[in-house]
Design goal:
With about 500 residues, the protein is of the alpha/beta class. The strands form 6 sheets. The protein has a 7-stranded mixed sheet. It contains 16 helices and 21 strands. It is globular, with a radius of gyration of 21 Å. The longest helix has 27 residues. Helix 1 crosses helix 6, helix 10 packs antiparallel against helix 12 and helix 12 packs across helix 13.
Length: about 500
């Protein structure tokens, strides 16, 4: 019997392939970064061909490290940066433009024009999302409007659209043009109730239905892999944040997780009915297993968290490696009275202001490098609290503890400050890379490697827990300062 399941995790800055055993333990990992392309301020692109090359390198590397062959792998799942948009030629498989990344703000004018009729929440009832530059639909429209001849070719069915999951699966299988409900729910083009593309919104956006992939369950066999994984069923597809929810085994309504990556994303399982947010959150598909009913979630998305540490490293040269930010922040006892609001590409949840820009406020001569590093870490915790408060209001459920995952959860200073600012325990699981694990779980369930979700709960284990130590009065005072700082970034552009 094949003993392992593989996951391809295609993220904003890198691609990794991970191989897991039946107990959910990591057997092998290979990871490669890809280039970030910034053609002008506010624009962020990736080269889809480079991403596909990194996927292939990751698969080969992970197999080689563990001395495994395709025959040892029961299934492969895919998880991905979600709203990043690729258009390619159906016949040649060549991209017609660089991928437009989820952080990109070039579609602000398109979103503003669409909002003139019906406001920013024009489509929210159907799709659970406000009109914002974040989502794929306006990005597709921008490419169709700006690449010569593309609109005509798209109407003829010659051009295909996909978020990165669709692009990877299309290449991996040699031509399956599919996506899953979780990724489709990030396009602003899928109806939450029918789980199909919405003809009215497609028409308003000017997106031909012929471009769109088939929407499938998150755990289902989409085809067989070619290349190094030849013959292995490609059987799982989840957007990265939904994959982390799945990997954290948040299968019951009211269970939540927060992933600390390039951005920060908190998801709360709301069960089999979509809950419309009144507090700036997104209503999204969490997952769908085979023929079972879909499960929905509320999501709070924060654009810049880990990316702020990279900015301190790459743009300011304050640190040489991202991991050094914690020791630099520890050289001071607090942030020295400053707040760092990283609205580099606008503010996401719960504000949704495309026209906000980053600010450091409260500067005095006293402030040094350590204070800036500390304020950068604290920004992640403050933003997370704002999202959690919105979730409590929308769901009526007070969170008792927060499960956390992603690269920044090994930063002990941040995790303790997070618990202090929230006033609830923060829990890190034994496998912190739950995004890849979630994709592996979805694929393994589809082929019977695991029988049911309860088998997966048994795999979850606690690595460390941080409990709040900060007095309530201090917590509220610091948070009030943060709220004031955020207002300074509004309407900058």
């Amino acid at each position: 019997m094949t003993q392992y399941v593989a996951a391809i995790d295609q993220g904003t800055t890198s691609t990794r392939c991970m191989i897991f055993d039946h107990a959910g333990k990591v057997i092998s990992l290979a990871q490669k970064e890809h280039a970030q392309i910034y053609p002008q301020p506010g624009w962020v692109e990736h080269n889809p061909q480079e991403i596909w090359e990194r996927v292939q390198e990751g698969i080969a590397g992970a197999l080689q490290t563990a001395s495994l062959a395709a025959a040892d792998i029961a299934a492969v799942g895919v998880t991905n940066q979600r709203e990043t948009t690729v258009l390619w030629d159906r016949a040649t498989g060549q991209p017609v433009h660089n991928a437009i990344v989820w952080q990109d703000t070039r579609t602000a004018d398109i979103c503003n024009k669409l909002a003139r009729r019906g406001g920013q929440n024009r489509f929210r009832k159907k799709v659970g999302l406000p009109l914002a530059t974040y989502f794929s639909g306006p990005k597709i429209k921008w490419m169709l409007d700006n690449v010569p001849g593309l609109k005509t070719r798209a109407k003829k069915g010659e051009i295909l659209f996909g978020n990165i999951d669709t692009w990877v699966i299309w290449n991996l299988t040699g031509g399956a043009h599919v996506t899953d409900v979780s990724n489709a729910s990030r396009t602003m083009l899928m109806n939450l109730n029918t789980l199909d593309w919405d003809d009215e919104i497609l028409q308003v956006m000017g997106v031909p239905r012929a471009m769109m992939p088939e929407i499938k369950a998150s755990s289902a066999v989409y085809g067989e892999a070619t290349g190094a994984l030849s013959g292995v069923p490609v059987a799982g597809d989840l957007g990265d944040q939904q994959a982390a929810l799945f990997g954290q085994t948040c299968f019951a309504p009211g269970e939540a997780k927060n992933t600390y990556g390039t951005g920060c994303f908190m998801l709360l399982n709301t069960g089999e009915r979509p809950v419309q947010s009144k507090n700036g959150l997104l209503t999204t598909l969490a997952y769908k297993i085979g023929n079972e009913k879909p499960v929905y979630a509320l999501e709070g998305s924060i654009a810049i968290t880990g990316a702020l540490v990279q900015w301190l490293r790459d743009n300011l040269g304050l640190i040489e490696k991202s991991a050094e930010v914690e020791s630099l922040a520890k050289t001071v006892d607090d942030s020295g009275g400053i707040y760092f609001v990283p609205a580099f590409s606008g503010l996401y949840a719960p504000y949704w202001k495309d026209n906000a820009r980053g600010a450091i406020v409260g500067m005095t001569r006293y402030v040094n490098r350590g204070h800036i590093a500390r304020a950068a870490l604290e920004a992640t915790a403050y933003q997370t609290r704002e999202v959690l408060e919105a979730m409590n209001k929308d769901s009526g459920v007070r969170l008792k503890a927060l499960k956390v995952d992603g690269g920044m959860v090994h930063n002990e200073l941040l995790m303790q400050f997070q618990a202090d600012v929230l006033g609830v325990p923060v829990i890190r699981p034994t496998v912190a890379e739950t995004t890849s694990l979630g994709a592996a779980y979805a694929a393994g369930l589809a082929v019977g490697f695991w029988n049911e979700v309860n088998d997966l709960r048994a795999n979850w284990g606690k690595d460390k827990e941080w409990t709040p130590t900060m007095p309530k009065a201090k917590r509220e005072k610091l948070h009030a300062g943060w709220k004031k700082a955020v207002t300074r970034t509004f309407d900058w552009v």
